[in-house]
Amino acid sequence: MPKPTKSKQPLLNLDSPSCDSREVHLDSVRQVQPEIIPTEKAQRMADFFGTLADPHRLRLLSALAKQELCVCDLAASVKMSESAVSHQLRILRTMRLVKYRREGRNVYYSLADNHVINIYHEVATHIDEPQV
Fold it and tell me: Would you say 74 and 60 are in contact if contact means Cβ atoms under 8 Å apart?
């Protein structure tokens, strides 16, 4: 008996417009080529964005964008177990998206730096913009 497969959402047919002519504009190509990032850097960036491609991690980042929180408060805020939150924080820490500090028996997490705060706010703003 065949294994049931998950049905995929149909993709909207939004073909990207393309040139009618296949003429290559060498001046444009030469201008842009030096600015194209090396494959290794592209892979590191893809890994970075892959880390952000998880709704649980984004919810943690949204809480931390407001304020520093201890693991207990963070878990309660996003309605996840402390163990699950700790696991996600470990991944975010590995990608240098969050940092922590210890105060007595508590560990407090915050966004790593202004770059992370800016990325979070820019993406959140972009998502809320009306589609054209």
Answer: yes
Q: What backbone phi and psi angles, to 5 degrees, belong to 8?
A: -95, 150
Residue-level pLDDT at 3: 54
Tokens describing residue 1: 């008996």
How would residue 46 be classed by pLDDT, with cut points 50, 70 and 90? very high
CA separation for the pair 110, 58 (Å, rounded):
13
Give, to the nearest 10 degrees, the angle between helix 55-66 and helix 71-78: 120
Residues in the chain: 132
pTM higher than 0.85: no
Alpha carbon distance 57, 63 (integer Å): 10
Q: How far apart are CA 91 and CA 48, in angstroms?
A: 10
Residue 75 · residue 83 · CB < 8 Å: no
